[in-house]
């Protein structure tokens, strides 16, 4: 087994233990492998290992790697062990002038945090005859420099986004602050989960609203315990290679 395969194996085991601790099924927690710090050979190896939900936080990098991987899959089209397609997740801050570029490639945009951005996505998607899935990014840490809608404004924004016909709001995303203080991290994830149930409960959204994207390399076990359905993990898989 390669180092990379071992690290993924280790992450999968930790996910399974966190699920067991919190009486959850591992199938209910999806792993998005964040490739921003990886080389193309490593990314190809990840795909060979059967993982096809990948994430990038910058549009240009996403387009570049998505193009390279599409070519790789095409060249190995007769290899039945490879996934047929890659699902790309745009996890970083999205500028409105980059929306069109991202729509063609992504299966889920995690970082919608203003009405203006949602409207831009809605308009571009309408023209392309698409209906992309998006998450509302919430700032649960109250750090002013962070992206994400403040918790207190999130329900109203969700309501407004729901009125846009060319996108589908399917959940929330949040990031915990960079700290070793586990209580602070857990408090952020709990806030996100409470908000998630609040939005669901007020019937602002439809039955598609099912995803809670939270948890990175340093905090994904806490995120699972607090209800994450999508993890975004990079450095725990690619570090040191
Ligand atoms: C980089 C990044 C991640 C992954 O972080 P790691 O610590 O490398 O696991 C997750 N989410 C977002 C938004 C990121 O930018």
Short description:
This protein is of the alpha/beta class. It has helices spanning 3-21, 40-48, 59-75, 99-103, 115-128, 151-162, 182-201, 220-225, 235-238; strands at 30-34, 53-56, 87-90, 106-112, 133-139, 149-150, 168-174, 211-213, 230-233.
Q: How much helicity do the residues have?
A: 40-55%
When the domains are counted, the total is 1
Task: List SSEs in N-to-C order.
Answer: HEHEHEHEHEEHEHEHEH
Number of distinct helices: 9
Secondary-structure arrangement, i.e. CATH architecture: Alpha-Beta Barrel
Count of DSSP strands: 9
Rg estimate, integer Å: 18 Å
Mean pLDDT: 96
GO molecular function, one term: pyridoxal phosphate binding
Pfam families: Ala_racemase_N (PF01168)
Function: Pyridoxal 5'-phosphate (PLP)-binding protein, which is involved in PLP homeostasis.
Domain Alanine racemase N-terminal: 87-239
Give me the secondary-structure topology.
Layout: H1 3-21, E1 30-34, H2 40-48, E2 53-56, H3 59-75, E3 87-90, H4 99-103, E4 106-112, H5 115-128, E5 133-139, E6 149-150, H6 151-162, E7 168-174, H7 182-201, E8 211-213, H8 220-225, E9 230-233, H9 235-238
Parallel strand pairs: 1-2, 1-9, 2-3, 3-4, 4-5, 5-6, 5-7, 7-8
Pyridoxal-5'-phosphate (PLP) binds near residues 216, 218 and 235.
């Amino acid at each position: 087994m390669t180092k990379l395969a071992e690290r993924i194996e280790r992450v999968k085991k930790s996910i399974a233990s966190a699920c067991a601790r919190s009486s959850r099924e591992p199938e209910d927690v999806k792993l998005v492998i964040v490739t921003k710090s990886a080389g193309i050979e490593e990314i190809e190896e990840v795909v060979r290992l059967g993982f096809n939900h990948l994430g990038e936080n910058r549009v240009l990098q996403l387009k570049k790697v998505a193009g390279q991987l599409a070519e790789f899959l095409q060249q190995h089209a007769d290899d039945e062990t490879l996934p047929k397609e890659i699902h790309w997740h745009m996890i970083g801050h999205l500028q409105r002038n980059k929306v069109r570029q991202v729509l063609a490639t992504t299966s889920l945009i995690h970082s919608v945090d203003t009405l203006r951005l949602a409207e831009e996505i809605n308009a571009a998607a309408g023209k392309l005859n698409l209906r992309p899935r998006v998450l509302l990014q919430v700032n649960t840490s109250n750090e002013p420099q962070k992206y994400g809608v403040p918790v207190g404004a999130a329900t109203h924004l969700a309501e407004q986004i729901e009125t846009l016909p060319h996108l589908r709001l399917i959940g929330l995303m949040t990031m915990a602050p960079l700290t070793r203080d586990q209580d602070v991290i857990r408090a952020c994830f709990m806030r996100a989960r409470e908000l998630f149930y609040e939005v669901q409960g007020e019937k602002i959204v439809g039955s598609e609203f099912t995803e809670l994207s939270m948890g990175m390399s340093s905090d994904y076990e806490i995120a699972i315990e607090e209800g994450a359905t999508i993890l975004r993990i990079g450095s725990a898989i690619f570090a040191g290679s």
